């Protein structure tokens, strides 16, 4: 994608939470692009010509001329228990030359299932916050957040070509590791996050990526530490601690094994080259 200053604009953005039935149907198209992320409960949306169930973690993508239909209605009864009706979502209507170029780069499915990570939710929140800002607004901030969100959507799409099943679960595990590598999590924490057993969690990750969960976590921590050694003035003991290592002795040993020199030697070598 070109990096010229092509226009990119958020027209409206918000968060909706429905506890009563809701229905919208636009056969003439939306007139803009739409990203809608289901965060809570369920709904139904028109996907490739038919209405499909939309659950938390489902991201909907519509172009300006796409027919759009969304239904939110009470869930069916299970026995004598009546479940409350609820549906929450972030939605962003947007457009511009940069967006046209981004959209036309590849064929995009209308619905993809993605992990509800704090990083992704944070992008939606920031765009909504900027749209609501009354004092000292700056449209460029929304512009930049939107571009990041679009590119992050592409990355999620390329990393998760299958929206359900084992591959999707393995990618959720991978994202958890990347977001929590700086803390000392356990396999039980990872398994709880994806709501499965430790043994299944370990097997799925190794089967999908060819590396164990803890080995991948080590790789992420070492890369994190390497960046901090080069670009921050942190003492090496603090680098180890903030990169998820329990103690400096272990960090020193695995760092030397990975990069062929101690953390101190690595910092000195890189500083000489800068």
From TrEMBL:
List UniProt keywords, sorted A-Z: DNA-binding, Transcription, Transcription regulation
Q: Where does the chain cross the membrane?
A: none
Q: Which Pfam families match?
A: HTH_18
Task: State whether keyword Phosphoprotein applies.
Answer: no
The residues covered by the HTH araC/xylS-type domain are 171-269
Tell me the protein's name: Helix-turn-helix domain-containing protein
* Source organism of this protein record: Saccharibacillus alkalitolerans
What lineage is on file?
Bacteria, Bacillati, Bacillota, Bacilli, Bacillales
């Amino acid at each position: 994608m070109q990096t010229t200053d092509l226009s990119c604009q958020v027209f409206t953005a918000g968060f909706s939470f429905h506890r009563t039935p809701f229905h919208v149907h636009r056969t003439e198209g939306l007139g803009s692009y739409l990203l809608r992320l289901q965060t809570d409960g369920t709904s139904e949306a028109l996907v490739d010509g038919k209405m499909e169930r939309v659950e938390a973690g489902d991201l909907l993508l519509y172009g300006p001329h796409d027919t759009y239909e969304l239904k939110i209605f009470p869930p069916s009864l299970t026995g004598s228990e009546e479940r409350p009706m609820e549906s929450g979502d972030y939605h962003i209507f947007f457009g511009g030359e940069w967006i046209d170029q981004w959209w036309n780069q590849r064929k995009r499915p209308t619905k993809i299932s993605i992990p509800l990570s704090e990083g992704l939710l944070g992008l939606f929140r920031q765009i909504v916050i900027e749209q609501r800002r009354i004092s000292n607004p700056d449209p460029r901030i929304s512009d930049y957040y939107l571009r990041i969100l679009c590119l992050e959507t592409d990355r999620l799409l390329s990393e998760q070509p299958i929206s359900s099943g084992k591959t999707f679960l393995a990618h959720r595990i991978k994202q958890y590791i990347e977001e929590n590598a700086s803390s000392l999590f356990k396999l039980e924490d990872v398994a709880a996050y994806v709501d499965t057993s430790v043994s299944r969690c370990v097997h799925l990750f190794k089967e999908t990526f060819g590396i164990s969960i803890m080995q991948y976590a080590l790789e992420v921590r070492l890369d994190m530490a390497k960046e901090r050694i080069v670009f921050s003035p942190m003492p090496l003991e603090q680098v180890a601690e903030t990169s998820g290592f329990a103690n400096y002795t272990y960090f020193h040993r695995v760092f030397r094994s990975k990069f062929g020199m101690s953390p101190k030697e690595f910092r000195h070598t890189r500083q000489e080259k800068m």
